[in-house]
Amino acid sequence: MKKQASCSYGDDRERVIVEYLYGECDPGERSTFDAHLVACATCRAEVQSLRGVRHVLAGWAPPEPI
After folding, report:
1. What burial letters (b/e) apply to 22-33, b meaning 16+ CB within 10 Å?
2. What pLDDT is attached to residue 3?
């Protein structure tokens, strides 16, 4: 993930997004990022997109061997 110019979250943006998606943020950081998501369309779109990918991957199963 490359930091978008329109996002001002900081250098640890990618780490925070991943931890946020996996529920690994501490409550204070989650609250801070929730507030950031309200104001930042770039991060909102990225979180939404990555949630979609996680949802699709959760339903994936390897093909049966032939």
Report:
1. eeebeeeeeeeb
2. 47
